[in-house]
Amino acid sequence: MTAPVLRWSHVADHLHQALADAGAPLSAYVYDLEALRAHAATIAGSLPPGFELFYAIKANSDLPILQTLAPLAHGFEISSGGELAWVREHFVEVPLIFSGPGKTDAELAGALDLGVEALHVESQHELERLAWLARERGVTAPVLLRVNLAVEGLQATTLMMGGKPTPFGIAGDQLPACLAWLRAHPEIRLRGFHFHLMSHQLDADAHLRLLDAYLRQVGRWRAQYGLGTLDQVNVGGGIGVNYREPQRQFDWARFAEGLTALSARRDGLTVRFECGRYITAFCGYYAMEVIDVKHAFDRAFAVASGGTHHFRTPYAQGHSHPFRVLPVASWRYPFARPGVREARVSVVGQLCTPKDILAHDAYVDSVRAGDLVVFPYAGAYAWHISHHDFLRHPHPRHCYLPVEVADAAA
Ligand SMILES: *Cc1c(COP(=O)(O)O)cnc(C)c1O
Questions:
Q1: Exposure b/e, 113-132, CB count within 10 A at least 16 = b
Q2: Pocket of ligand 1 contains residue 58 by CB under 6 Å
Q3: Which segments constitute the Orn/DAP/Arg decarboxylase 2 C-terminal domain (predicted)?
Q4: Ligand 1 binding pocket mutation candidate from 52, 126, 158, 274 (most atoms within 8 A of CB)
């Protein structure tokens, strides 16, 4: 179980159908909800007692995605008032935790009014504003302090949120003052600590060592500051997806085994994960119809319908995204079909910028105008991080292939 299996034929069947009634060059996101359900169920089911999985919805907050995950995850992690309103509009009961920098008074008040389980507080000033809003309402605010921790021997990834100067969390040296302030402010209930130092973690053993360091640190703080009433530690998300070498994904099975060994360090605390990318990336596919295949100097380019305004992930992460060509037999014109065989090709979109590139010089057996190029691992930080209206091209279709298991309750 190192990586979920991609159900290519299932996705291809759907795309060929979509192509038949497209009427214009196709661009589409396809989400395999059954694959999502199976993957999330495996992850949630592999966690030992005392560990809980939250889904960080900023990775992909589409309703069918959230509906698939709600029964499997312990709850959702939200990072804005907009996400809070969106989730509460559709899920009255699901447990929520609220993270994120620069929370406004309205967002903090919304979290108190709409029953968020815990707020992850990012600074002393945020804590003071939250206490002031809680006092006004006569309620107690449940809080985890997000700490930017210096971890000895920290193995960095390509996206670091802490362990160095960043805008996130409370720097470790400010913690004593924060804790002293909290002792005089009963309107805040300190439930624990929150860490999210990195994303793109691909190494299960390194991640286990990091979690071990978090839990040891929390143990030291509990002893040092007499924090007997804590009940949780949130260890963030950050499990990566290997876009560069897709056969070598994060070894979740090994990680889950390591968690069992780590259980002794929990010391009665509940350990929460708030993963985004690793949960939803594998279920999504971005498909583009090739409009043209051309050469410039010694390079070949497939120009396809769509681009980074739909799927910014490769540009955002600086990689060449893996893809497959789905051959399409029909050809509508009475003249020659441009294409290349057994060649390297760059896949680009329709934007008027050389930055609109999704794959660089990738080997293909064949690609022709009219074929589809399909990018897997496009279910997280894909559509939702893209600049949709640059050039005002049409938005892609979004198709959700349904969950296949029978509803036991029906
Ligand atoms: C974005 C974010 C996550 C999710 O990160 P992934 O890399 O998608 O797992 C979790 N916690 C915080 C605080 C975040 O900002």
A1: eeebbbbbbbbeebbebbbe
A2: yes
A3: 29-379
A4: 274
